[in-house]
Write a structure and sequence with these properties.
The protein is of the alpha+beta class. It has 4 domains: 30 residues; 82 residues, no CATH class; 138 residues, no CATH class; 107 residues, no CATH class. Helix content is 30%, strand content 35%. It contains 6 helices and 19 strands. A 6-stranded antiparallel β-barrel has the order 2-10-13-12-11-14. A 4-stranded antiparallel β-sheet has the order 3-9-8-5, with no helix packed on it. Strand 17 and strand 18 form a beta hairpin. Helix 2 runs parallel beside helix 4, helix 2 packs antiparallel against helix 5 and helix 3 runs antiparallel to helix 4.
Length: 422
C-alpha cells in the first residue's frame, strides 16, 4: 500500500513538473518576441498638388518723382482714399532719425496727457497692469512665430502701456509738472516737424485703394489683362522673367477688389474642376490658407494652367507675387498607424478574369491586441506617408474592425490571428 502511494505521488510530481516546464517555455517565447504596440488614432489631412504661380492684381505704382529715403505714413495693407498722404520722401538721411524722434515725442505726449487725465486711480492702474501683461504676451507670440510685420507697432504699444502705468502709479500732486512737461515736448515736436518739412516730399494717393510698400516692378506685367490669353507655356515663360521697381518708387496702390492667382501644375490629371472652390495653402512669405474659386483651367501635355480668383485677403497678400502653394483637392479622414503596423497579403479573387486566369490582389490588415490576444483586422489604405499610413476599416459595419484608440502591434513576424501575446 505504501509503495502504491509513493508511486502515485511520484507520477503526480512528474506531471506537475511537465506542466510547469510547458508554461515556462510558452511564457518565455511570448516575452522573448518583445511584442511592441502603439495606439492608432483618428487623423485628417489635406491632400492635393503643389503649384507655382503669380498673383495678378489691378495695381498703380506710386512714385515720388525723385530718389531719397522713404518713410511710410500708411501701414501695410491700409486703405487709402484719393488725396490721402501715403509716404514721405526725404532727401537727407538724417531725416529718418528725426522722423523717429517725432514718433517718439508724439507717443510720449499722448502718454503724458493720459497720465494727466487719469491721475492715480486704482482701477486705472489695475487695468494698465493687465494691458501691460497682454502686450508682453502678444509681443512674445509675434517673435515666436517669426512674424515681424506688426512687431514695431506691438513694441511701441507695450512702451506706451509701461509709460502710462508709471505715471498712473505716480504722485497726483505733480499735475502742474506734467502740464509743463507736455508743453515742452509739444515745442520740441513743432521744431522737429518744421526742420523735417524742409527736406521731405509728401506722396499722395492718386485714387482710392489698398496701400502697399512692396512695389516690385510687376505691376504692369502681372495685370489682369494677361489672364484671357494666358496658357501654361506663356505662364512658364512669365515666371522666369525678372522685374524690379523704379528708383523713385515708394509703393503701390491695389485698386481692384478682386485678385487672381495664375498657377502652373505638373501633369494633366489634376482632378481640378472649373467653378469649384479650393483651399490654397501659402507657406512662404505669407502663412495661411485662402479659399479661392477656380475660374479657368487649361490642360496641356505635361502641364496644367489654373486661374483662381478671390475677393478677400487682399491686404494680407498685397506684397506677394511669385509663390509656391499647395492646392487642396480633398480632405482625407481616417485612422493613422505607423508603417510597421501594416501587413500586406496577396490573394486570388474567386471571380476569374475573362481569360480564365484568377486575378491576384493585395489586401492590407493590421493586428490589434484585444484583451490578451492578437486580432487580424483588414483595412483600406487611404494615404501613404514616409512615416505613417492613413487607413480605414475595409468593412466599416463589421463588429470586429479597427477603431481609433485600438492598440496595434508593430512586430512583423511571429504574429497570427488569435495568438496570445500577453
Amino acid at each position: 500500500m505504501k509503495e502504491s502511494t509513493l508511486a502515485t505521488k511520484f507520477m503526480i510530481a512528474i506531471l506537475c513538473l511537465g506542466v510547469a516546464a510547458y508554461l515556462a517555455v510558452y511564457l518565455f517565447h511570448g516575452w522573448d518576441e518583445g511584442v511592441a504596440t502603439t495606439r492608432a488614432y483618428a487623423y485628417s489631412l489635406d491632400a492635393g498638388c503643389e503649384a507655382v504661380g503669380i498673383l495678378v492684381r489691378e495695381e498703380t505704382p506710386l512714385s515720388a518723382g525723385g530718389t531719397g529715403y522713404v518713410d511710410q505714413i500708411l501701414a501695410e495693407g491700409a486703405k487709402a482714399a484719393a488725396g490721402d498722404p501715403v509716404a514721405l520722401l526725404y532727401s537727407d538721411p538724417s531725416a529718418l532719425t528725426t522722423r523717429q524722434s517725432i514718433r517718439t515725442l508724439e507717443a510720449e505726449i499722448q502718454q503724458l496727457e493720459y497720465a494727466l487725465s487719469s491721475g492715480a486711480q486704482t482701477a486705472g492702474a489695475a487695468q494698465l497692469d493687465a494691458q501691460v501683461i497682454s502686450s508682453i504676451a502678444a509681443l512674445r507670440a509675434l517673435a515666436a512665430r517669426g512674424d515681424l510685420t506688426a512687431l514695431e507697432d506691438s513694441a511701441l504699444h507695450l512702451r506706451s502701456m509701461v509709460f502710462k502705468r508709471d505715471y498712473a502709479y505716480g504722485d497726483t500732486a505733480a499735475a502742474g509738472q506734467l502740464s509743463q512737461l507736455i508743453a515742452d515736448k509739444r515745442a520740441q515736436l513743432e521744431q522737429l516737424n518744421s526742420s523735417l518739412s524742409q527736406v521731405s516730399t509728401t506722396v499722395y494717393a492718386p485714387m482710392s485703394g489698398v496701400f502697399s510698400a512692396g512695389a516690385d516692378g510687376w505691376e504692369e506685367a502681372a495685370s489682369p489683362d494677361i489672364l484671357d490669353g494666358l496658357t501654361a507655356g506663356s505662364l512658364s515663360a512669365l515666371l522666369k522673367e525678372q522685374h524690379s521697381p523704379a528708383p523713385s518708387s515708394v509703393g503701390k496702390l491695389v485698386t481692384g477688389s478682386t485678385w487672381w492667382f495664375a498657377a502652373l501644375l505638373e501633369g494633366a490629371d489634376t482632378g481640378l474642376q472649373a467653378g469649384r472652390r479650393y483651399a490654397l495653402n501659402f507657406s512662404g512669405d505669407y502663412f495661411g490658407q485662402i479659399v479661392m474659386t477656380l475660374e479657368r483651367i487649361a490642360l496641356e501635355e505635361d502641364q496644367t494652367l489654373a486661374v483662381f480668383s478671390c475677393r478677400s485677403h487682399l491686404a494680407d497678400t498685397a506684397m506677394l507675387r511669385i509663390q509656391t502653394v499647395d492646392v487642396i483637392t480633398q480632405t482625407l479622414e481616417g485612422i493613422r498607424i505607423p508603417r510597421k503596423a501594416l501587413r500586406v497579403e496577396t490573394v486570388q479573387e474567386e471571380q476569374e478574369e475573362e481569360d480564365g486566369v484568377p486575378r491576384e490582389v493585395n489586401r492590407y490588415y493590421v493586428f490589434t491586441v484585444i484583451r490578451s490576444q492578437a486580432w487580424k483586422q483588414e483595412v483600406e489604405v487611404l494615404y501613404t506617408d514616409p512615416s505613417f499610413y492613413l487607413v480605414r476599416p475595409a468593412n466599416p459595419a463589421a463588429a470586429n474592425r479597427l477603431r481609433p484608440g485600438d492598440e496595434v502591434i508593430l512586430n512583423s513576424s511571429g504574429i497570427y490571428d488569435g495568438k496570445v501575446v500577453r
